[in-house]
Amino acid sequence: MNTQSGKNSLTPGMKGRSTWFTTRKMTSIAILSALAFVLMLMDFLPPFVPGFLKMDFSEIPVLIGAFAFGPLSAVMIELIKNLLHLTVTQTAGVGELANFLIGSCFAGSAGLIYRYMKNRKGAILAMAAGVLVMTTAASLLNYYVLLDIYARFWTMDAIIGMGNAVNSRITDKGSLILWAFIPFNLVKGIAVSIVTGSIYKPLSPILHGRHSREVHSK
Q1: Apex CA 99: angle with CA 45 and CA 73, to 5°?
Q2: Do 96 and 87 touch, CB atoms closer than 8 A?
Q3: Which helix (H) or strand (E) holds 206?
């Protein structure tokens, strides 16, 4: 009887703790998604790529979420961010689809590696791998799928012409990938990784609730 009573007395506390962690995690994911959406609105055109490749830093909150909560949470943040951006889309949803797929490859792969190597070396390896996975995925997806979808709204000649206007080496789909998409994603991935690497450590206790528990314990 005493043993059973002890089990029952522990159950409410365990449930409460589990709910508290779940609530904090979902709240953090919501905040990171909203921040990613705002950063996605603050896009700009780098000087070395055609006009349809806009740079933004919305992957920073996604990568932070990947490190804090894992790869599935990163995909969730990517999804929410791009669903929000559909309300202001200028690409009939194609840009959001591309951003979701490529961003998920980046943060998802980085988050998966970091899950098993939660230290500085693991973070660096995770971000480096994420950049390479993103660049490779962007190249393949654009070459075989996404550029053909874009060509339904423009023409492939028009798309390649926009690339040729900023880089005379771009003369066909393959050279567009080589001289526009690959450098674009490498630069973006490295920039996002540098910023995330510099701010994740101080943010981690806040995201996991350790900061507030430390304050209450004092």
Answers
A1: 130
A2: no
A3: helix 182-208
Distance between CA 33 and CA 26 in Å, rounded? 10
Scan for tokens 């007395």, then name that residue: 9
Question: Cα–Cα distances in Å, from 190 out to 24, 129, 135?
Answer: 29, 11, 11
pTM of the model: 0.85
Does residue 10 sit in helix, strand or coil?
Answer: helix
Name which CATH class applies to 18-42+55-217: mainly alpha
For residue 215, what are the contacts with CB-CB under 8 A and spacing of at least 6? none
What ranges do the domains of the chain cover?
Answer: 18-42+55-217
Joined together, the tokens standing for residue 25 give 């995690």
Q: What is the pLDDT of residues 18-39, one digit of tens each?
A: 444 578 889 999 999 999 999 9
As a whole number of angstroms, the longest Cα–Cα distance in the chain is 83
Q: Are 114 and 67 in contact (CB under 8 A)?
A: yes
CA distances from 187 to 56, 115, 128, 131 (A): 11, 25, 12, 9
